[in-house]
Amino acid sequence: MTMKSYLPKFALLVLTLPTFGNVRSVEVVTPQTRDINITTTQPAFVEAFYTAEIGSRVSGIVQSVKVDIGQKVAKGDVLAIIDAPDLHRSRDAMAAEKLVAETKLAAEQAFLEATEAETKRILDLVKNNSVTAKAGEEAKKKSASAQAQYKAAEANLEAMKARLAKAEVMVSFATLKAPFDGVVTKRELDPGDLIVGNQAKPLLHVAQTNKLRIVIHVPEKDTQHLDIGDPVALTFDALPTRNINGTVDRMALALNSKTQRMRTEVDIEATAPRLYPGSYGQAVISLEQKPKAMTVPAGSVQFSSGAPIVYVVSGGKIVHQPVTLGVDHGAWIEVTSGLNGNEQIVSGSIDRLPAGTAVNLR
User: What is the pLDDT of residues 261-286, one digit of tens each?
Assistant: First the structure.
């Protein structure tokens, strides 16, 4: 973390007076204002905005490869085709079974319609006492049986449709397609290769490079000032004469347990010539700007019971003034509250000065 100051050093009041009795001689300063710019300078790495490792869920022989490295592709473009004859045979068999199920359903529907018509006729005869009630009950049972057979055929057809749809999906996996607009960055297959489905090794890599992620790992001590929208100045080894400006677009909000750093990202459009994923550079993040901040020498701040105070000379006596601290530069410390800027503060006192101690200025 870097802090810059451009204003003069502290004004030192020097007045020599005799010391009488228990009166202490002290040196005092007044608070000074300065412009504080808190920055952090860290390595920056370029990544593609999206990267996809494309593999195959099916086994077979590579029939054709449609692309090569460096080739731009659009979402849905065919990258490679795998010949998987077992999948095609399985799909065709299920399609035939679906036709059989459709025929069976049509036959059951015709039988159901005929049975229901016959049942209605018999029930009408029962009402006219032309046939016995027993004949009517038997007709109802036949109609119920026909209804059940129709429902079973209907369910069987739906099951066949689902199995065929699954087979179609598996066949589609034999055609590898681009998941988004991008460029092919790696090719790991050739025509004739034997592909084993679900193998760990990706066959193709596609990266979206019209937009890039600049990755910066910010140290834990600087994350206290890190915010979305902080300005970032970027330089890259590949573009030594060009500066690129951006802002913090996202931060992980968690530290890496091994490095104690937070992943931070800046998005830039890939308009810079020859800036590729994998490029290396440097990022300067402006974490916080504090114009005209009030500061005092670090040695003037005392810690009484852990609470920071300064010794203010008022009416020739010491007053313990509590203060709230901000940025600690090392040589000076920001005071965010507790002082109005006109106080005379004891500078660099080694001894403890109780409140009410009589002092003169030297």
Answer: 999 999 998 875 678 999 999 999 99
